Amino acid sequence: MKSVMASRKFFLFGSLVFLIYALRADAVAQALAPAPIDTCRDCHQDEKFRVQNKKIYEYFQDWKGSSHDLAGVTCTACHAGDQTKNEKNEAHKGILPQSNPESPFHYKNIPKTCGGCHASILERYQKSRHYDLLVKAGRGPSCITCHGALNAKVYSMAIIQRACSSCHNKRTGNKPQIIAEAQEILGRLNYAKGYRNGLAFYYKSIHKPEAMKVVDAAYSDVILFWHEFDFKRLAPRSKELLAEFKTIYVKAHEAPKEIKK
Q: What is the per-residue pLDDT across 32-66, written as a single tens digit (0 to 9) for each?
């Protein structure tokens, strides 16, 4: 009986050693594996474009280090082409000019292209008046109007002033009050984000990160709702969100110290 138990222990020990060795070997193999070929990056990062084609140079610089770059979203993921080819024509094969209605970057196709990853945002945007104008008349704002093409920009009052005021102003008479309404709502959302960040730090310090699930869900829902651009309904929701987060934050920091241990 003892010999059987000893054999089992030896077998389990041997299996554990083998598993650890296999995992370490796999990690080493991944670390030593060559980086995937990306001729787009190799070519477009060339400093010659600063003079020869400033638009291409700035386009690449905008993408480099952006959230898309860090997430592994390369040129071909959106533009098509073949990033393994060194010859220009081969590398650019299948890429359509932006003026082509079939191009993923034709103005009307931008939401569908971005929505390939940001499906929940696209779903909300498609409920908006902006989307109707884009589809029917090609005049509505799309994703890049507010966020830029590559290095996505969010939560900026300057974006509202720059992007929204081109249509919503006294000259056009097209609801010029929208600018002030949007800025007020965005201001509340930025304050709510501050409380959210504070709560994330607090719950992490007391080893209860799961408590953030409710906070994150409420915040994400209102942010998604922004993309419907229904400010009459969004304004009260932004007020409710800010009040809710402020209450949670105050109560959390008023909790007895023994709870924080």
A: 445 567 888 888 888 888 888 888 888 888 888 88
133, 140 Cβ separation under 8 angstroms: yes
* pLDDT at residue 174 tops 80: yes
The reported pLDDT for the residue numbered 244 is 97
pLDDT cut 90: percent of the chain above it = 52
Asked whether the beta carbons of 131 and 150 are under 8 A apart, the reply is no
pTM tops 0.90, yes or no: no
pLDDT digits (tens, 9 = 90+) for 188-206: 999 999 999 999 999 999 9
The answer to whether 188 and 226 have CB atoms below 8 angstroms apart is no
Backbone angles phi, psi at 94, to 5 degrees: 95, -10
Q: How many residues does the chain have?
A: 261
**Going by C-beta distance under 8 Å and a sequence separation of 6 or more, which residues neighbour residue 161?**
179, 183
